Amino acid sequence: MEESLNLSQQLRLQQKLSPLQVRFGRMLEMTGPEFEDEVQRMLDDNPALASADTQLAADTFDAGQFDETAEQVQLADYANDDEVPPQFYGASGYQGTGAGFVEPMATDTSVTLLDTIEQQLAELRLSERELQIGRYVAGNLDDNGYLTRDVFSMALDIDEHTGINVSTGQVQHMLDIIRTLDPPGVGAVDLRDCLILQLRRKPESRLQKLALEIVVHYFDLFSLKHYKKLVSALNVSETELKDALNIIRQLNPKPGSFLQSDANDEKTHHIIPDFSVEIDGDTVTVSLLNRVPELAVETSFTVEAEPKAAGRSQTQAVAFVRQKREEAMEFMRLLKMRQNTLLRVMEAIVKLQRDFFVDGACSDTSLIRPMILKDVSALTGYDLSVISRATAGKYVATPAGVYPIKLFFNERTNDTDDTSAHEIMSALRKIVEEEDKGHPLSDDSITALLQAKGYDIARRTVAKYRERMGIPVGRLRKEIL
Known about the structure:
The chain has helices at 19-28, 32-45, 52-59, 70-75, 113-122, 128-138, 151-162, 168-178, 191-200, 206-217, 219-223, 227-234, 238-249, 261-266, 312-352, 354-359, 373-380, 384-391, 421-434, 443-452, 459-468, and strands at residues 49-51, 275-280, 283-288, 295-297, 395-398, 401-404.
């Protein structure tokens, strides 16, 4: 078998990002709180990087003022008051950083659905075995109060994990008890079951029985709002049907959710704006809300303080100092680049959306004009990926409220029209609000009305905008008047 060597030339175009560019891209797409954490992490990891305020304090430190006690020296080893051992309280007179000692107390006082169910089960006359089964069944309820497992699977799991040999009948018995507890509707397997449980807990009346019959036997007609078919099937008047439907609408489709409200409030994601826009007549001022400290190279890592290499150990020390100083200076350069990039991008957006910020007083979203990444790129000269990262997850504070930056990006409905999607959606919402609720408009009718107002738009676009705003189709918007 003959073998031969061939030499050939090949032309190939490649584009590679340097590690510095990759790092800058990651920093650019960070939100304000995320970047604050990144700065703090760098301050903790790199001894050559210091806050300017800390550096100033170190430069003005007077050694003669060092009069800490032995206990205070020991306390300095702990990052915060929460890490201080109990023995430092009381006898040592330690009071933390506050004005005085505060009794430690639990901060999470929210009551979960599981806590509520277990408390009610404990008040019943149940055996220890029944309580164990009941707690396990309650543990399979989601935050809305719905059962996520079937009885057979729960019986197998109880036997496997606890060693208690139970039958499906015993598990079903405890489930039936839980379904009688508060909040009404807990333990349901689906929405229909949840509504039935709540209706059966209401005082008996003619309308209560009618509402129960609708949910039990005609739930499909009710969910699809086929009111005429319901009137015919139930042999009732429209007024009676309307009163029964009002009872159903007052029920809670998520019975366990209100118990989680306190906990959810604690965990609510607080929006922290990254930019501030101030309006003074025709003058618009854009500011970057910088919440990171001013950074500087720590004094002992400067070039002037660099140790003179005289031996192997000194050479390693010099290399360490230089490496950490270069990393610190590189991070400070990236921080400055991030701030300048964010500010220039926001200034370009404000310039393109001047009608919204000035004429609309930052409140009329219909004045937001069509704008895409290319428009901002044309003003700033930045690449599209840079602009996308700079606007991702960012918010701007205006005199009328806080808005996500992504709100200002919207495409034209067609290439020849300068009408924005926000303007069309505002007109669409107004048409739906003013429609006859007894005979809601179809997408074709809405399209015709929008075209009559001068908007060149297709029916499929109307359907897309309607779904984006969370407006159901006309049939599901129908109401009995």
